[in-house]
Amino acid sequence: MQPDILLTLSAGSVRPLLAARDPRCSTIFEMPQFVATDLELRGLNLPAEMLKGFAIPDVEKLRDEADRAHCPVLLLTEETPIDFVTRPGPTWVAALDRLRRLGTAASRLGCPAIAVKIQAPDTDEAFEATALGVKIALKELDKFELNLLISPTVGLTFDPTRLTDLIKKIGGFRIGSYPSFAHAHATGDIEKTLRKLAPYAPSIAASVRGFDKDGAHDGFSLETCVSSIRSVGYGNTLALEFIGREQLEKKKSAKKAVEVDIVAELETARRQLSTLTAEPEAAVVFDDEED
Q: What SS3 class is residue 288?
């Protein structure tokens, strides 16, 4: 029997609803209830940028709303890559300060992990320096009792083998990966990439680009993604992450914009992923009755 996979939401997906003051989800404090009730998802991965301007009471209010909706914040993500190589100096001081701020916010949210991207070239020197820098950073994060996840990005961590080697080099039980379907697709080998990174991942971003009228996903197969992580026994969380809006806007004509119903796209993704991650019911076999 395969372990259960929890379906959650990458909260950045609903930024356009917040920006438009959509009545279904007009503020970030309404988001947990909207995600739990309307999207039928059971947790949030939250971009740190969405907390810009928040004071501690605001962060705690969001945590309380998430708890009330039974939709906790499970991961705080940082989109701006962090330089773990350039030490010592102002860049390193800024990096540690940023990590402490992320740690404080995650702690107040009751969130067990933060995910960051690494700014570094793919060289042996940068590999060694990054591993040491992350080890130092983990000591700074120890007081928050947080896991640190590495999101693959251009440079040192783009290749999945290189990223897993880095995680092994850093060592310890508080380091892991935060892969995405989109990154796996970009590598040119979705199956290999996801099989490589999933064993180190408490959460995976289930990137969604959009669906055609027949329900087929644009660009790559969600079934292939799920079967790849299932093949290595993955049973943690998948965070639905709508990324199609940018691609679609690039295709719009100057005269007519392409309108995207983000909620409909997320609902389609949730239905498909629920089906793909569900365990088939075991057949019940009855012995033939004796005459």
A: coil
